[in-house]
Amino acid sequence: MTNQKENMERLIAGVRASSGDLKKVAGVLPNGDTVDVFFRPMTLREKGKILKILGKDPARAVLETLITRARDKDGNKLYSLAQKSEFMDEP
Prior knowledge:
Layout: H1 4-18, E1 23-28, E2 34-39, H2 44-54, H3 58-69, H4 84-88
Antiparallel strand pairs: 1-2
Helix pairs in contact: 2-3
């Protein structure tokens, strides 16, 4: 019979094996152009950060999620935290 530590190690190994998978979301911009944005599953640390913000400022939590997760087809981040205030000032 396996113990809890072995079960946890198998779970972590499974998460690590799938963590590199990029998922694509296609969208249409207001001007009619299409855009593909790719996402990776969030880490527990990233989820915790978003959840702390969610109850206080839902709009900021959405923005943090976008900045944290949005990638190009090669897995490079599309946005940086330095752009957060610029996005927050958008109408």
